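Hi P.,

Sorry for the delay on this. The queue was packed all week, but I finally got your sequence through. Input first:
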Amino acid sequence: MCGAKGCPPIKNYDHNNIDAELDDATIAFFEGECLLFPERHSVQLSMLLKWYRQDFGSTNEQILQWVARYLDPERRTTLEQMLAASESIKITYSEYDWTHNSKKSS
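Then the structure:
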């Protein structure tokens, strides 16, 4: 967690419920950071998944299977259908936003 707009938001987590809270944060992150284009058989992901690729899988398919777990049911189904198709899925990555993610007080 870095504080840039391209990172997931910084938050305090409760150690008693950390796994569920981290799952919720991941789901929220992928709402805006995973775009599906079934007609082009492509997916756009956060640049973080490119930079830390080995943390998510060694192949595009493994990475997309990992991402699918954190998508809403409709988008998960779409991605799973794309993965089941015979052609490979092209992954592109969004430009990373390095600007500071701060809230201004009035």
